[in-house]
Amino acid sequence: MRRKKSLSNPIIRHVQEYSSIYSFIIVLFLMGVVFGAIIVNSLSIDQKEDLFYYLNQIFWANFGRENCSTNRFISIKFSS
Question: Could you tell me how far CA 17 lies from the centroid of its own chain?
Fold first, then answer.
């Protein structure tokens, strides 16, 4: 008998075997994105500016001034 071709690939076999764990991780990630967006929307203008400053420092420290343009970030409107 011939084996199924899809099961002969170790990557496909691994993903099929651990599909429930991958699904759980994806759901957790999406929940984090949704709740993070809700929390950021509920911040005051001062808190949003503080968060912007903090994240801006992280991006500039990690990616350098030549690779990270803050013009994109400055154009964000902080509305409550």
Answer: 25
